[in-house]
Amino acid sequence: MSTKAKETPAAKGNGAASTATSSSGVESVLRRHAEDQFAAELAALQEVDDKQRPPKWKLSPWAVATYVLGGKAGGMEITAKYIGKRRLIEVAIATLATDRALLLLGVPGTAKSWLSEHLAAAISGDSTQVVQGTAGTAEEQIRYGWNYALLLSKGPSREAMVSSPLMKAMATGTIARIEELTRIPADVQDSLITILSEKSLPIPELGEEVQAAKGFNVIATANNRDKGVNELSSALKRRFNTVILPVPDTADEEITIVQQRVKSLGKALEIPAELTGLDEIRRVVTIFRELRNGQTEDGKSKLKQSTGTLSTAEAISVMNNGLALAAHFGDGSIKASDIASGLVGAVIKDPVQDRVVWQEYLETVVKERDGWKDLYRACRETL
Ligand SMILES: Nc1ncnc2c1ncn2[C@@H]1O[C@H](COP(=O)(O)OP(=O)(O)OP(=O)(O)O)[C@@H](O)[C@H]1O
Ligand SMILES: [Mg+2]
Question: pTM (2 decimals)?
Answer without folding.
Answer: 0.88
